[in-house]
Amino acid sequence: MSTGSEVVAPPRLVALGGNPNSGKTSLFNSLTGLRRRVGNYPGVTVERVEGRLILPDGSAAALLDLPGCYSLFSRSDDERIARDVLLGLLPGTVRPDVVVVVLDATNLDRHLYFATQLIETGMPLCVALTMVDDAEKAGAPVDAAALEEALGLPVVPVVAHKGENLPALREAILRARPGRRLLRLPPPAESALGRLAGAVRAAAVVPPESAEGEALRLLTQARDADRYLQRGGSALAAALAEGRRALEEAGLDRSSLEAEARYTLCGEVAALARRSPAPPRPSPSDAIDRVATHPVAGPFLYVGLMALIFLAVYSWAEPFMALMQAATGFLGEGVAGLLGPGMLTDLLVKGVIAGVGNVIVFIPQICILFLFLGLLEDSGYLARAAFLVDRLMRGVGLNGKAFIPLLSSFACAIPGIMATRTIEDRRDRFVTILVAPLMSCSARLPVYALLIGAFVPTGYRSLTLLSLYFLSVIAAFGAAWVLRRTLFRGESSTFLLELPRYRAPRLRHVLVNVYDRAKVFVKQAGTVILAISIVLWFLAYFPRSESIAATAERRIAAGEEEAGVRHQAAAEQIRQSYAGRAGRLLEPVIAPLGFDWKVGIGLLASFAAREVLVSSMGIVYGLGEVDEPSGELQEMIRKDKRPDGTPAFTLLTAISLMVFFVLACQCMSTLAVVRRETNSWRWPAFLFGYMTVLAYVGSLLVYQGGKALGWGL
Amino acid sequence: MISPASAPGPAPLPGVPPLRKTLDTFRPGARCIVRAVDGTGEGRRRLLEMGFVAGTELRIVRLAPLGDPMQVTLRGYHLSLRRAEARTVRVDGL
């Protein structure tokens, strides 16, 4: 391994690496402040966060927060990305000049595992030692100077959330240097490694100083050798085969060799760094755990907290959402008043401003959910929550961490889907994302209220509503069960979940995360939502019929009541718009579900957002814009007749339509967020497809089944 | 779905003498020493990386209310693992 020339030029890109729960993100926040860029690494769903770091010499460097890793050798997306960044193999990201390794002083053995792997990348390193105070309290204090000597790297103890010692850490970044390899393997493995390292260096896939570390990985792991074999050719293939044979002959288990040797090393380094071990004191964390994971008290606490979160997302957000709706409404009226009637006004008010409204209305729920999620995660409870319900969720092939995203989806699938980021396993996460929109969200409520109020007899209304929620849960769990056995088949993911020590959540850190989530949503999903809003407006506005407008003007001039005439004209205009034509075109398709073309228009319009069904039905029935399910609209729908004189709507049609709304993904915002969270259009397309099919079949069964049983009228 | 998993242990490999007990057969409070991790692939790799290497001492802290997963402590930290995963960890009781 190359020896320690110090970094001369100030670094341009500094990477921050460490285990999950090491205080890494908190340190990142303290070092960079609020200005940072959040995005995705190309092609994967791993989040990329970069901020600005000012160094003691006054120069600025970019600070890249690497995904939390337990190891550099694993296959998970997070760890693969971290490895590729560090080896300079990731397109679009230059190789960092320096890596700051975060080590948790209370958990030194396991954190050293990753740190010693980092040494083997040959990169200049320095160490930020966190939670020194906690280690002291727990009776296992760590001596930074001794650790510095044992590792051969600059070590700075920091208290990230208090900002203590950060200047010293910035100083240490300038002193970062490559470390010596500390890992010692049994002699046969060492000689095999030496030969393979030569071949890897010759293949020149990675910088020469990283060759030995990569050789170790290739030697001990079966996969991922392809890119070396392509460049290194037969010499590398031969060295690899020979090395593995040598291990086998020496009776060494290739796959456990590295882990065993490394943990031996970690134990030795940790022993050198630990000052006079005092007898370990009972930690307050264990005392909390006795309650939080108690067989009786634990579930009670869990249910209480979940109820609180649900209540908060469901109802605390309500006033803020109403405020935002009022604000966009006020803005719309203001613009309409200022510009007078016309197409431009209509585009601005009903396309742009309403579109912006469709975006910002989600912000309160997102902020509240992420506030709670952040508090639970930062305190350490989130892992316990997953521990408590894992068995329950596994019944349908999900894991314990899927519970909170699914629960929040009762309020709104958008924050729910964003919350699936806490699920590390890709398959578990994708299945959770794909079933979350089936949970009956609050946007479906106005639709239920309209139809239940119009058609369900008084005594059965609550029961009907409850059944709809029940149906949504059954559908979501059923879909998860099916997806886990088809598209996302495979051995149940490992559920090794670290249960970190409890600690007081750091509000600043939590709020920064809330801010990031809201910003990412507005910037990345919001633009798509706004664009689709404008397209939908266009489809419902064009083409304009001059004759309808002219007739309306004549009737108003003739003294007919203006509002009534205008509403009627609006209804006629939408009828012959592109959306209206599509609605009529759709009629033969939706007739078996009991819907006529008016419902067809409503279904198309409600793609913008489900609750739009109510207002678009208002327009179609010539009542003008209706925001709340009004008695007048219910009356109109009840009295509406088909051309043959039979009622257009019956109780059965209403139930069929509600079942459709439970099961269909009538929400472009959800699709936009799924696009952002899965980093591909494939999954939102699949989501929309399967839910539409499910909704169609569900509705068809209800309507045709009901008719066959004679409930038709 | 509620009952704790009680699937039979892994079939003994041909030609290998009967192996040690597995971690899932111990009760909360038990202390054990890891001897080996069965299996192949990513699950085994992850267990090794999280510290389940031969000679490591661990303690079963408790089971989740539904009997699965289990909470263990090793190397100074706490970890939750499913019984199916515990079944791949060969241990000696202390």
Describe the protein:
The complex is a heterodimer of chains A (713) and B (94). Chain A is of the alpha/beta class. Chain A has 4 domains: 13-174, P-loop containing nucleotide triphosphate hydrolases (Rossmann fold), CATH 3.40.50.300; 187-251; 297-439 and 469-511, no CATH class; 527-708, no CATH class. Chain A has helices at residues 24-32, 77-86, 108-119, 132-137, 144-151, 166-174, 187-203, 211-220, 226-249, 254-273, 284-292, 297-339, 343-360, 363-379, 381-394, 403-408, 413-418, 426-435, 445-455, 461-485, 507-541, 546-557, 562-575, 578-590, 597-605, 612-620, 631-639, 651-663, 668-678, 682-708; strands at residues 13-18, 36-40, 47-54, 60-65, 98-104, 125-130, 155-157, 497-499. In chain A, a hairpin with a 5-residue loop joins β3 and β4. In chain A, α12 runs antiparallel to α13 (343-360). Chain B has one domain: SH3 type barrels. Chain B has helices at 41-49, 83-86; strands spanning 31-37, 57-63, 70-74, 77-81, 89-93. A 5-stranded antiparallel beta sheet of chain B has the order 4-3-2-1-5. Chain A binds chain B through residues 70-71, 73-75, 106-110, 113, 140, 221, 255-256, 259-260, 263, 289, 293, 295-296, 298-299, 383, 386-388, 390-392, 394-395, 491-492, 494-500, and chain B through 1-2, 36-37, 40, 42-51, 53-54, 56, 61-62, 64-69, 71, 75-82, 84-85.
